Every structure is written in C-alpha cells, then in structure tokens.
Amino acid sequence: MTTAPRFSLKIRLHQGDAIALGPGKIELLEALHTTGSISSAARSMNMSYRRAWLLIDTMNQCFESPLVSTAKGGKGGGGAHLTERGEQVLKQYQQMERAALHSIEADVAALMAHLKPQ
Questions:
Q1: Cβ neighbours of residue 23 closer than 8 Å, sequence gap 6 or more
Q2: What structural domains does the chain harbor?
C-alpha cells in the first residue's frame, strides 16, 4: 500500500530544560478543554493519568500563572479546566501554528514535488 507524502510542523517553546509547550501538551489542553477532566483527557489520548498530570504540572510551572486549574474529587466530583491564561495560550499557539503553516505552504509544496513517487 502506498501512502501520500505528508508534512508536519512541530513548534515547541522551551523554558530552561523543560518543554513548556509543544504539540502533545497542546493536544492535552484541547482534550482537557473538551472533557473537563484530566483522567478523561488522558484516556482520550491513550495516556496515563500520571503522564497527563506531569505534563500539566510542567506547563503550570513554566508559565507566570497556571494554565490548568484543578478541583479535588469526592462526592461532588472533581474536575479540571483551563484558566483564562490557559485559554489565551491555547488560542495563541493554534494561531501561531496556522500562520507558520501558511507562511511555508509554497516551500513545502515545492519540496514535496521533488519526492520519488511511491
């Protein structure tokens, strides 16, 4: 089976040795925004709760204010949501990704034209 050539762009924001933001963390923020739960967001990404929590903790530590706020579980249930800063960061990253892809669209097409047919 042949597959069409494809292109991907990965934008990462580093804070010291940590990756403050990147494609996986953005996907997690999007899932969290949709589900309202770290465990549900993690499940939707086939990720452990612990891994999701560590990624959220890294993001929260890297930015001047947290991107995700959590409420403890219990009778009324817990949950998590993006803070105002989290929503801003998510929207800005998505806009930056669209702008970057748009700005290199012609170059990518030109390079892909030189690939061998499969």
A1: 10, 11, 12
A2: 14-112 (1.10.10.10)
